[in-house]
């Protein structure tokens, strides 16, 4: 294991991530980031999977309804949202109905069915695959982890290519603001994250060294359908759980809804659905990033009844988003 990696004690970690509502405070080894006096609040929802879940519209609608009652600076969906089929327009309209700033992240499954990134992006009215914006003195970067894999990586596209890397370096150089980075795939979880994550983390770490303060605060992703946080070389990495389910595959198929739903939405049986949608609201205030918890339960048998692992340190199967209180 990399000696520079700041791992949370495993026993403590399993306790803190198994139940939402706990507080995770990780060590800080560099100068604190100069966050301004204004409070920033934004909403996040990840992996709704319109093309898998029969009730994806209702899940997204709840998030939008709750978000609309809050004073937010923006909302964002973290990918695996919907494919650009015409019949998904009503689902997209729910997100677009939010009366405020809203942003997209491209997920790997958003191009399933033979669609290109440009087709999906245009359907969503997303101007660019990767981009940045500023809110109240904080710089936000959205990455596209779906560039084609060069050798030796194989499988689905989960790479950040040269053009995007060059853009990222320049974008970070051009801001003096504390920065939060969003991506669909993880920059920390090696088995299923961005293939060249170590290279990208190196860019972020050198940015902080050159700045002389903690410019890059935190990286936030979806994709893994888990509830987990870690810190590597003074940068936080937070995985936001799916709004809908945990994928468990063909060896663990269980029909959990009606025959009609199962016939129309054939992939649900490969998942453990969450009874209620998961999403979160993030507040940046007084040198802290506070991630709001949300708890639900599984529909039908959970991992224990299915003889699956429940709480690997970096991949717990839980129907929660934990509360994280991250000092920056």
UniProtKB/TrEMBL annotation:
- Ranges in coiled-coil conformation: none
The Calcineurin-like phosphoesterase domain extends over: 42-226
- Pfam families in alphabetical order: Metallophos (PF00149)
This chain's protein is named: Alkaline phosphatase
Any GO molecular function:
hydrolase activity
InterPro entries linked: Calcineurin-like_PHP, Metallo-depent_PP-like, STPP_CPPED1
Which species is the source of this protein?
Answer: Arenibacter aquaticus
């Amino acid at each position: 294991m990399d000696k520079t990696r700041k791992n949370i004690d495993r026993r403590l970690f399993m306790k803190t991530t198994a139940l939402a509502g706990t507080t995770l405070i990780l060590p800080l080894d560099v100068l604190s980031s100069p966050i301004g006096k204004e409070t920033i609040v934004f909403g996040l929802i990840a992996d709704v999977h319109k093309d898998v879940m029969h009730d994806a519209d209702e899940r997204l609608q709840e998030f939008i309804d709750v978000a609309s009652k809050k004073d937010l600076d923006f909302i964002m969906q973290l990918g695996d949202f919907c494919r650009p089929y015409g019949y998904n327009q009503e689902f997209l309209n729910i997100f677009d109905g939010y009366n405020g700033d809203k942003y997209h992240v491209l997920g790997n499954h958003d191009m399933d069915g033979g669609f290109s990134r440009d087709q999906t992006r245009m359907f969503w009215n997303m101007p660019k695959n990767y981009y940045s914006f500023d809110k109240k003195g904080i710089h936000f970067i959205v990455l596209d982890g779906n560039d084609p894999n060069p050798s030796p990586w194989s499988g689905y596209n989960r790479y950040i290519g040269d053009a995007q890397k060059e853009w990222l370096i320049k974008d970070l150089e051009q801001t003096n603001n504390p920065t939060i980075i969003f991506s669909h795939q993880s920059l920390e979880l090696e088995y299923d994250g961005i293939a060249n994550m170590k290279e990208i983390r190196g860019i972020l770490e050198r940015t902080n060294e050159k700045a002389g303060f903690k410019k890059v605060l935190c990286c936030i992703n979806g994709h893994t359908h888990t509830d987990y946080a870690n810190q590597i070389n003074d940068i936080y990495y937070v995985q936001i759980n799916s709004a809908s389910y945990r994928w468990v595959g063909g060896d663990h198929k269980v029909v959990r809804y009606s025959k009609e739903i199962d016939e129309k939405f054939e992939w649900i049986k490969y998942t453990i659905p969450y009874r209620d949608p998961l999403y979160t609201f993030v507040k940046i205030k007084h040198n802290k990033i506070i991630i709001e918890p949300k708890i639900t339960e599984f529909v039908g048998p959970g991992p224990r009844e299915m003889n699956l692992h429940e709480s690997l340190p970096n991949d717990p199967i839980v129907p929660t988003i934990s509360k994280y209180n991250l000092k920056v």
